[in-house]
Amino acid sequence: MARSERTHAHPLGGDRGPVRYGPPAPDPGLPVLPELAGVLAASAARVLPEPPGGGTILREAARGYWDRRGLHGDADAVVAAPGPQPLLLALIAAHGGDVLMPRPCPAGWMPQARLLGRPAYHVPTPAECGGIPDPYALLETVRRVRAEGGRPRLLLISVADDPTATLAPPELVREVCEAAAAEGLHVVSDETWRDTLHRPHDTVLLSPAEMCPDDVTVVSDLAGALTPSAWPVAVARFPDTARGAVRRARVLDVLTALGALVAEPVARAAAHALGEPEAVRDRIRRAAALQARVASAAHRAVLTAGALARPPQAGRHLYADLGPLRGRLAARGVTDSMELEEYLTRRLGALAPGGHRFGDELGALRVRLSTGPLLGATPERQMESLTAVEPLELPHVAQALSIFEAALDELR
After folding, report:
1. Cα–Cα distance measured from residue 167 to residue 158, given in angstroms and rounded to the nearest whole number
2. Entry pTM
């Protein structure tokens, strides 16, 4: 990797100025589950925050959640924070050295490294998926960074990925983990979207912690599938080792210094969701099935317009490459991903963050397109979408898809 490819702690944007905000996680386009709202309301009179790292009830609920997914451990190895950003910031701070991450990657990753002044390197992803680096590219990047005097120590990955909405095949996850372990890299596995698989019975998600339990910290933003994004809470599961305990203590130090404490009403609601009662499980299943139907229709529209996108496999979005439409876009004054973001956001009436937000090259015409806005503008219509046998036939969904398709079709 050339020195110029290294990402320092300076703003992106060139002569346009810095990127001053990051796009939020894709909107689910669904109302709050009434059962969770009830738990939050019942705890609203509690005025004290949780202790740093979360209280016993929340951490035990997270332990049980992971235990049901084959990741066994103790509640003392769990840390909670008010959202993924402070949690990731604390994790990066707790590990010395340089940070590696795939390109593209979640929008929240690079800003944390920038804030800490940590050198960070993007590694290309394999053709099959996003979220993880190509194993051979990872080894080559580590070699080059070390040759330049760098100290690669931390690898961030997401097996169920934002922004690409793909799922990393187990064999590739295994190769990446083996390469990381061989090079002494600790892996932070972001598994925020693991419960949003579009076809859970036909796909296999392998957590890196199943392979390398001593070398992987698992993190999850509960807004992926369990709680509303307006109730910020994220959890991390540390390895059951002496080194894992030391890093957990460092993370707690950082969260304490930041005052990054989970509000107790939010903690109670999050613990309830992590316990996965039937109402929560039913909402997760229904929401994933609905997003799968709508994402598939959006994917067809992207391909019909002549653009490219991997089939979405998880989450509530897809990642489109409009490079094949570059000529038509240039005629509309769109020559890079910042201009593409502005153009499609205006045309669709919903935020369409460009690939530069996710570490992609500015000149690449890539964009993350969310499916949540296609489900309805009011809680009533959103619930209608969630409960319909044929949601794509609902008038408001059909109209939203028609606008989506028209915005792309006019570029053919």
Report:
1. 9
2. 0.92
